[in-house]
């Protein structure tokens, strides 16, 4: 069954269907102007988030509720708890941002919600709320690919003067994703490489657990590493110098576990040195892989980093060096826009609506949804 809604007559919305969506280059020349703000909804993992952006992409209101405290006792995200928490909090969060933005639903130009990849329970909640708003107020609905939202964040107004130009290299470094992507346009992505085992954030979280740090381990590990000396606990650099830009982190995690087992009992300084040694190994590997990816994409005009691990200062510094050596500027959005948020979802919605792209209301949320599947035929 399809619930495709005819746009109101006065709205300059181009009707598209999936076939037209496949011809992005033609649509890209349309450059449609939006007639109102766009609301974005994010619920793919453990952040419940909502944001309203105006027609230019300036943030009118945003809110993020982290579920970290709900999941921390279990040492990781529990999908069922996540879905219930999204359900409990999202409706109130939507009302809050709408009020703060000083808009009403009827004045919106569209609704954008993360529809994958991610945890299916949360995706169903966010997509359902988004579709409900779209249905009730006869608005176009954009089923946003969460990875595309990360990929396009750098194009938010104000981050890069004049807007980040295509094409650029995206390094997505989060708890669930770790990949190098050539971003050639809206909907146009080429995966150049990615992790063959753990995501980099997952490696931080697992090593954090080994070190007895609270979940998620990344931020706590960075704080512990600040008091350590990386040279005292050197670790292997998996795939360093290897052709291509794939990553591997599970061997590094095992190396940390073995080192810790051998060095018992661990003094506080040893723990800090291990954290610093691990972090330095990760930063080196990421910089090396980024350099390779830049070499694989000579047309890249920027190196953009996104995902929670991009919050790490050592990682940022190493990647900035790699970008400088590759002759391109590095763009790292502010940390709150690097981790999961709804500003990026609303922005991805704006980018798509401007091209006349939106989705039918029977679009199903997808736990797996590789970026490459957004490519025009
Ligand atoms: P996900 O979509 O997987 O939830 P996020 O973009 O929300 O990913 O980022 C969360 C991940 O980022 C976690 O694995 C966390 O440990 C990691 N992270 C956050 N801050 C830091 C930091 N300062 N250093 C290293 N890793 C970090
Ligand atoms: Mg998260």
* Oligomer kind: single chain
Distance between the termini: 25 Å
Principal-axis shape equals globular
Quickly give the structural class.
alpha/beta
Give the name of the CATH superfamily of the largest domain: ATPase, nucleotide binding domain
Radius of gyration: 21 Å
Number of DSSP-assigned strands: 10
The CATH class label of the largest domain is Alpha Beta
Task: Write up what this structure looks like.
This protein has 377 residues and is of the alpha/beta class. The chain folds into two domains: 2-158 and 337-374, ATPase, nucleotide binding domain (Nucleotidyltransferase, domain 5), CATH 3.30.420.40; 168-332, 2-Layer Sandwich (Nucleotidyltransferase, domain 5). It has helices spanning 18-21, 24-27, 68-71, 79-101, 120-137, 146-152, 200-210, 217-225, 250-262, 268-296, 313-326, 335-338, 343-354; strands at 38-42, 47-53, 59-66, 110-116, 141-145, 168-173, 178-185, 188-194, 303-306, 330-331. The strands form two sheets. Strands 3-2-1-4-5 form a five-stranded mixed beta sheet, with helices on both faces. It has a five-stranded mixed beta sheet with strand order 8-7-6-9-10, sandwiched between helices. Strand 7 and strand 8 (188-194) form a beta hairpin. Helix 6 packs across helix 13, helix 7 (200-210) runs parallel beside helix 9 (250-262) and helix 10 packs parallel to helix 11. The structure holds adenosine-5'-diphosphate and magnesium ion (MG). Magnesium ion binds at residues 45-47, 175, 339-340.
